[in-house]
Design a protein that fits this description.
Blueprint lengths: L1 E8 L2 E11 L4 H16 L5 H16 L3 E8 L2 E8 L6 E3 L3 H9 L3 E3 L17 E9 L2 E10 L7 H15 L3
Antiparallel strand pairs: 1-2, 3-4, 3-8, 4-5, 6-7, 7-8
Helix pairs in contact: 1-2, 1-4
The chain binds methionine sulfoxide.
Length: 174
């Protein structure tokens, strides 16, 4: 089945386009189809919030994740940025939870069962597994992408590889 999701092109704000997603493809192939579309959507758009918001929306619509969004580094905390899903924790200290740990360690954290992650911050009791990918700009973490699933063990190295590639693109927006 092919899903056609209307989006707005950054440089042509009055012209609707569509996100092309072939759900018969496997996950890695779906990412390969989606990432160039996010790149096209954000290229030429200088506004950080707009690009983060459309990226969260595209990932949410493509894969139906329970929660997908960004936390931005502000001083010694992460502060909630653009996201799709239920309301979430607003501020996370460095080193706290999965997001704060990903920031402190400057690396992706794959958590198959959030209850097994010491210090996990439960913004929603429906979240069962999680992947957090840092955005690195000039060697510093400037934000993290957090993706939550309501299924256990829902993320693997295909997600990690694609989302790390996407966050390399995102670093250019900061
Ligand atoms: N679970 C995250 C907090 C953010 S919410 O899941 C949206 C954490 O432990 O850092």
């Amino acid at each position: 089945m092919t899903l056609l999701i209307p989006i707005q092109h950054s440089t042509l704000p009055t012209v609707a386009e569509e996100l092309h997603l072939d759900t018969t493809l496997n996950k890695a192939e779906q990412y390969r189809q989606l990432l160039p579309q996010i790149e096209a959507l954000t290229t030429g758009e200088p506004d950080l919030t707009a690009n983060l918001a459309n990226t969260a929306a595209a990932l949410h619509q493509a894969f139906g994740f329970f929660w997908v969004g960004f936390y931005l580094v502000k001083g010694d905390e992460l502060v909630l940025g653009p996201f799709q899903g239920p309301i979430a924790c607003t501020r996370i200290r460095r080193g706290k939870g999965v997001c704060g740990s990903s920031w402190a360690e400057a690396r992706t954290l794959l958590v198959p069962d959030v209850e097994q992650f010491p210090g996990h911050i439960a913004c929603s009791s429906d979240s069962k597994s999680e992947i957090v990918v840092p955005v690195l700009k000039d060697g510093q973490v400037v934000a993290v992408l957090d993706v939550d699933s309501d299924q256990l063990n829902d993320f693997d190295h295909d997600d990690q590889a694609a989302l790390e590639q996407l966050m390399t693109l995102a670093a250019g927006w900061f």
